[in-house]
Design brief:
329 residues; alpha+beta; N-terminal domain of MutM-like DNA repair proteins; Helicase, Ruva Protein, domain 3; 2 domains; four-stranded antiparallel sheet
Length: 329
């Protein structure tokens, strides 16, 4: 499932390319036809993310709320300008993906930092990108024909965004947006003030629930998924089964602050980079390869990078949990 950094990058991509423009909205798949009709022809005023939810405001108090879930992804095509506030790992600031111009391949061999398709990786996304490039190279007209099950298509004269496989794709109003936000825990990029940290610390310390479960509870904190959960707990040297109420205020506050740092790194680079203290060569490898980017995530059975103990994989709350039983006693 795309974690919080990806959704913030998507929102910024929309802000850089679609905000202020009249948008043609359709549902090639047909499942969002009624919602698309409500939004079609309206101007997009702003887009922002809170955790794993994205909110797009159109004229007339019409909002599009999208939660990608496990399988959702946005594919972008046309004249796509990268968000100039994001320091891309490849330095792609200001470059465009338009007919005759292709973005360079991402340094990350897994494509996590891609600007053409953001969300759950799957073959259809790759096929979409290949089809778009083929059409552009052949000089065919824009926009390309929808490929696969496109729930919603947002289109301007020069930009295209196709949404596939989301958990939620609904039209609502401002009150509905606020109601969703009110149910979510704090997000450091939506509110990084002292009250956000205090809310997180209080929510954690009043619960008997294991901290590993609390970090995945979007009502406690927004945006953390399986990768960031495992890495945050290792970086804090916390046993994932520790009850939230057993954490000191300082420990809980440090978790929030570390999440804030890692989230910003993820947005800036497009990658869930969770290791620090690396040499230049180690950093280059980590930015290029997932296997070199994390302390414990997906390293079950391999020796801990710190103590040499084999990393453990267990199931907790129907999700995979990776941790070091020695460093995280």
């Amino acid at each position: 499932m795309p974690e919080g950094h990806s959704v913030h990058r998507i929102a910024r991509q929309f802000d850089a390319n679609f905000v202020g423009k009249r948008i043609a909205v359709s549902s090639p798949q047909g499942r969002f036809a009624a919602g698309a009709a409500e939004l079609d022809g309206r101007t997009l005023n702003r887009v922002f993310a809170v955790g794993k939810q994205m909110f797009a405001e159109f004229d007339g108090d019409r909002w599009l709320r999208v939660h990608l879930g496990l399988y959702g992804a946005w594919d972008f095509a046309g004249r796509i300008l990268t968000d100039p506030t994001i320091a891309s790992a490849q330095g792609r600031m200001g470059q465009t993906n338009q007919r005759g111009t292709q973005l360079p391949e991402p340094t990350d061999v897994g494509g996590e930092d891609s600007v053409s398709s953001i969300g759950a990786p799957r073959v259809s996304r790759l096929r979409m990108s290949e089809q778009t490039r083929a059409l552009d190279a052949a000089g065919e007209s824009f926009p390309p024909v929808p490929v696969g099950q496109v729930r919603a298509r947002l289109l301007t004269d020069e930009q295209l965004a196709d949404l596939r496989g989301p958990t939620a794709c609904v039209v609502t109003d401002g009150a509905g947006v606020q109601a969703v936000i009110d149910r979510l825990g704090p997000d450091p990029l939506h509110d990084d003030g002292p009250r956000a940290q205090e809310a997180f610390v209080a929510a954690v310390r009043r619960r008997r629930t294991a901290i590993a479960l609390l970090l995945m509870d979007q009502s406690v904190v927004s945006g953390i998924g399986n990768v960031y959960r495992a890495e945050l707990l290792f970086r804090a040297r916390l046993n994932p089964h520790t009850p939230g109420r057993a954490l000191s205020e300082d420990t809980a506050a440090a978790l929030w602050q570390d999440w804030s740092r890692l989230l910003r790194i993820g947005v800036e680079t497009g990658q869930m980079m969770t290791m620090d203290g690396l040499s230049p060569e180690e950093n280059r490898r980590a930015m290029a390869t997932l296997a070199d980017r994390h302390w414990v995530y997906k390293r079950e059975g391999l020796p801990c990078r710190v103590c040499g103990t084999n990393i453990v994989l267990e199931e907790l709350g129907a999700r995979k949990l990776y941790w070091c039983p020695s460093c995280q006693r």
